[in-house]
User: Fold NADH dehydrogenase [ubiquinone] 1 alpha subcomplex assembly factor 4 from Rynchops niger.
Amino acid sequence: MGGRLARVFRTFNLESRARREISKEKPTPAPRHPTSRLDELADHPEIQEEIYRKDDRLLTLLKDVYVESRDPPAQVKVGGGEQLPCKQEEKRLTKLGNLGDLDVKKVPKGKISIVEALTLLNNHKLHPQIWTAEKIAVEYSLELKEVNSLLEFFIPFAVQEFPKETKKAI
Assistant:
C-alpha cells in the first residue's frame, strides 16, 4: 500500500520537472590554472623536442640493470596420497544431567560441561570436606590450579524460601 503512494509522489508532474532540468543552462566550468594548459606546449617546439628526446646516458644505465627471478623449488609430497593422522583430543564421558538427549555426551579432557560445573560447585558448597579441590580435579580430569580458581571465583546461587509469616512482614 505504501509503495503505491510513494510511486504517485515520484511520478507526479514528472514531464514538466524533466523539461525544467533540461532547459536549464549548463554551469560554466571553473577557470583552469595557466600552468595546466597543454596549449602552451604546442607553442614551444623546444619543450616538445626535450620531451621526446632519448637520453643515451640513462639508456646505458637502464641496460646495466639485470633482474633475475627464480621460482621457489617445488615441494614433493612424500608418501603418495597418505595423510598423516591429526592430533586426536582425548575425550571423556560426562556425568549426565537430567536433560537426556540435550546433554553433552563427550567433553575433551581438561574441560567440563555447564551441567558438570554447576554440579561440582553445588557439591563443594554442600560438602566441602568431602568434595575437596583435589577430589574434583581427579574426578573431572582437571588441573588442580584451575579447580582452585573455579571454586574461588564461582559461587552457585542459594535459593531461600521464606515462611509465610515472614512474607507478610516484608
